[in-house]
Amino acid sequence: MERLRDLYLCCDDSIVEDRELCSCPPKGVLGGVDRLRLSKRIAGLLRHYPHRYNVELDRAGWARIADIRRALAASVGPWVREWHVRGIAMFDKKGRYEVVGDKIRARYGHSVPVEVEPMPGAPPNILYHGTVEENLNSIMSRGIVGGRRIKVHLTSEFSDAVATAKRHGRRVVVLEVNVECIKKKGLDVERASNTVYTTKWVPPDCIKRVVKPKPG
């Protein structure tokens, strides 16, 4: 199970993961369990169901942080504060979120139609996609498709692909994908965060290897 560290709101309104970085007793604490719960709900609000809580996304996927806090207060509890939302975005290791001023958006993972511009930087030639053995026959026939998400998500980190696959079952496999092959099919591979890349489709012949990770 994924575990996250506590977040602290310092006396100068800075947000840290290490309490020792506060120069005085913190004004607020967000425990790791609540941080994980809020992070999952924020992802859902920004990627899949903003309408459920009357959160409005613009064409680029931006929402007002105040609206996200309001939705979290209604769905999780009235104790939620805006600094919780900012802190979760700031310290997300996968770079899922982006904050500018009073707005926040998810950088990838959407099933609702938005247009998030890619980050600069070319992808490595090998990327990874985690899944489970039950999906292999379909994938090797049709390729990797987005499912309910608008785009296919790939990662530069083998360990991240393993972690993603474990959320779907126990018989984990990781697909090794050749980026140059995808590009030769006329498909773009765009950088969505520090480690995540997206494309519309991975053709079957661009899957170069299927790896079964060692248990552990």
Mean pLDDT: 95
The end-to-end distance, rounded to whole angstroms, is: 13 Å
Rounded Rg: 19 Å
The CATH architecture of the largest domain can be named as Orthogonal Bundle
SSE layout and pairing:
Blueprint: E1 7-9, E2 15-16, E3 28-30, H1 32-47, E4 63-64, H2 65-75, H3 82-90, E5 97-100, E6 103-106, E7 126-132, H4 136-142, E8 152-155, H5 158-166, E9 172-178, H6 179-184, E10 190-191, E11 196-199, E12 207-211
Antiparallel strand pairs: 1-2, 1-3, 4-6, 5-6, 7-9, 8-11, 9-12, 10-11
Helix pairs in contact: 1-3, 2-3
Describe the structure.
The protein has 216 residues and is an alpha+beta fold. The chain folds into two domains: 7-106, Orthogonal Bundle (Arc Repressor Mutant, subunit A); 126-211, ADP-ribosylation fold (Alpha-Beta Barrel), CATH 3.20.170. The chain is 27% helix and 22% strand. A three-stranded antiparallel β-sheet has the order 2-1-3. The longest helix is centred in the N-terminal third of the chain and has 16 residues, at 32-47. The radius of gyration is 19 Å and the shape is globular. The relative contact order is 0.13. The mean pLDDT is 95.
What is the gist of this entry?
It is built from six helices and twelve strands. It has helices at 32-47, 65-75, 82-90, 136-142, 158-166, 179-184; strands spanning 7-9, 15-16, 28-30, 63-64, 97-100, 103-106, 126-132, 152-155, 172-178, 190-191, 196-199, 207-211.
